[in-house]
Amino acid sequence: MSEDAFVFPAMPKVNVVRLLGVLAEAQPGQWVAPGPVFVWLVEEDRDLYVDWEPDMVATLERAVGQRPTWAVQINYRASRRDEMMTLTRALMRSGGVAVDDFVDHVWTVEEIAADALVRGGRFGEPPVWR
Questions:
Q1: What is each CA distance from 21 to 37, 46, 94, in whole angstroms?
Q2: pLDDT, tens only, 90-118
Q3: Separation CA 117–CA 123 (nearest Å)
Q4: pTM of the model
Q5: Cα–Cα distance between 106 and 57 in angstroms, integer?
Q6: Which of 38, 40, 79, 110 has its CA 20 to 30 A from that of 8?
Q7: Which residues have a Cβ under 8 Å from the Cβ of 130 and sit 6 or more positions away?
Q8: HEC profile for the chain?
Q9: Burial of 91 by CB count in 10 Å (0-12 exposed, 13-18 middle, 19+ buried)?
């Protein structure tokens, strides 16, 4: 089963495209990073917030200070979380936030770098309840 994470980098989109060109193999309409981890740029007017709960969009808007118009969508298998995390850290080296399929939370750079536990889960992996 595959999972999705959305990264909202603080760097300009042109720099993200350049970085993806270094970190992943360009293919028509996407990049493929080692793992494999599949990557797309998604725009607000073309599928960015499809299937998002309105509360999560509002939480993201509050965290960013505005509604982001684009993001990097990363699709990966849970067994490839390490590869996804490597890519996410690179995309967020200048700041930004991210969301994942598991925890209704806007993840900061610091939380991701620390592999922080929020509501029983870490970025990119499902919560574990004991």
A1: 14, 22, 17
A2: 999 999 999 999 999 999 999 999 999 99
A3: 8
A4: 0.94
A5: 10
A6: 79
A7: none
A8: CEEEEEEEECCCHHHHHHHHHHHCEEECCEEEECCCEEEEEEECCEECCCCCCHHHHHHHHHHHCCCCCEEEEEEEEHHHHHHHHHHHHHHCCCCEEEEECCCCCCEEHHHHHCCCCECCECCCCCCCCC
A9: buried
